[in-house]
Design a protein that fits this description.
mainly alpha; globular; two-stranded antiparallel ribbon; 3 domains; 4 strands; 20 helices
Length: 436
């Protein structure tokens, strides 16, 4: 967890400071003292490998990030250049920004007020990996573009949303870096660490100079979803405010844009699958932007060969087929379960119903997988195969996301409820009999 008054220094955050000291001056902006008044470092002292152990051995009277400055770091010019590259590469983003009477976003983003404390935090985040500045600028761009269209006239809110976009992932600085490596298989306990990063970012930014409660609240919600299947709080309906929703959509859409210039067609496909995850106004805005961007039905990035994707195709179809078979079989046992578990199962049913409806509306038949496989094979390399494989990738990802979220929430329930959750998941996967 992040450091707070009279709490230990987070070792991962401190390691990022030490790494930054190899190329930048990292120093105390004020005396760093313990709650009992013992001075650990005087103002102007450097933070490096030598001082690391001293800081780790004590609790501090004030959070370390409130006392530290990193010279140089991310500049307005770098933010502006990254924004320009996004617009050059992404027709979808250009369409979102088109016909906007305000100052171009490539000029407003570099003008966002970053206090020394916020600038230091942003620098530590972007130095982790070469693509982090690109990612965070992309989220800020999309968030501000959406905010201008969906929440017109509130300039201060637009600025706050843009700033939240730049800082939305700073909570990752307090996590074990090994968990953040792409492609790393994560166990349940490790996943619980990952999904804590919005909470950590909220706690850090809430009391930081230039941050505040409203900015921190936006960051806290950047992985929430309208149907209650987001994290960390599982917000639903009106709890998921329009401002927070713009940031969550921006984070999701930036992930699509990072896959390549065909984000428009990916967004068109995905918005058909997620009617309950975001509100219809923002989804219609994305669909309109995809059309205006000139997105072609054909994807320029092949989503993989049929042989590579076939296991995913069959897995998705099997899950949906089994769900129809088992969805009523647990009702008697659920009547004896806790209200928390019943609520969770209701969310699962809603999400699976949405996936089933999207599956059917796309012309797919889970009852006849052999026909779908035959159609795909006949269309080797064609438009049908590319679109269907892209659909399957989205389906597969969402089913996996739902399983992780269910296991995460079940961890806080009784052992009996946890056992029922594991049985239900196993039934959907076909690893236990469908009857409990």
């Amino acid at each position: 967890m992040p450091p707070a008054a009279a709490e230990p220094v987070n070792p991962h955050y401190l390691d990022h400071l030490v790494a930054a000291s190899a190329s930048h001056d990292v120093e105390a902006m004020e005396d760093i003292v313990t709650p009992s008044g013992v001075k650990l470092l005087a103002r102007g002292a450097r933070i490096d490998a030598v001082t690391r152990e001293r800081l780790l051995a004590h609790k501090l009277s004030r959070p370390l990030e409130q006392c530290i400055g990193v010279s140089g770091g991310v500049t307005p010019e770098q933010i502006g250049q990254a924004a320009e590259r996004w617009l050059d590469e992404q027709p979808l983003l250009r369409a979102l920004c088109a016909d906007d009477p305000g100052l171009p976003l490539t000029q407003t983003l570099p003008r966002l007020r970053l206090t020394p404390a916020l600038r230091s935090l942003l620098h530590l985040y972007v130095q982790r990996q070469p693509d982090r500045l690109r990612h965070t600028v992309g989220v800020a761009l999309v968030a501000k573009a959406l905010a201008r269209r969906l929440l017109p006239g509130d300039v201060d809110l637009h600025r706050r949303i843009g700033l939240a976009g730049l800082l939305h992932d700073v909570g990752e600085l307090y996590l074990n870096p090994a968990f953040l490596q792409r492609g790393t298989p994560l166990q349940a306990e490790q996943w619980r660490q990952i999904v804590s990063h919005p909470v950590i970012g909220h706690r850090v930014l809430r009391d930081l100079d230039g941050g505040g409660a409203e900015l921190a609240e936006l960051v806290l919600g950047h992985h929430e979803r309208l149907d209650g299947f987001g994290y960390p709080r599982g917000l639903q309906g009106e709890q998921f405010t329009p401002a927070t929703q713009t940031l969550a959509v921006a984070e999701w859409l930036t992930g699509l844009m990072e896959q390549g210039p065909s984000a428009g067609i990916h967004a068109s496909i995905a918005t058909k699958l997620i009617p309950g995850e975001f509100g219809e106004p923002v989804l219609e805005l994305l669909r309109a932007a995809a059309r205006a961007s000139g997105a072609q039905p054909r994807l320029t990035e092949a989503p993989g060969s049929l042989a590579d994707a076939l296991p995913q195709v069959l897995y998705v179809m099997d899950v949906l087929t089994r769900w129809r078979a088992v969805r009523g079989s647990f009702d008697d046992r659920l009547a004896l379960a806790s209200p928390e578990l019943r609520s969770l199962v209701t969310l699962c049913r809603h999400r699976l119903l949405q996936l089933q409806a999207s599956f059917t509306s796309a012309g797919l038949d889970a009852d006849h997988p052999e026909k779908l496989v035959r159609d795909l094979a006949d269309d080797e390399g064609g438009v049908l195969q590319q679109e269907l494989l892209s659909l399957m990738r989205e389906f597969h990802w969402r089913i996996g996301e739902m399983e992780r979220e269910v296991l995460l929430r079940a961890h806080q329930m009784s052992l009996d409820d946890q056992a029922l959750v594991h049985n239900m998941i196993a039934a959907l996967k076909g690893s236990v009999p469908t009857e409990p």
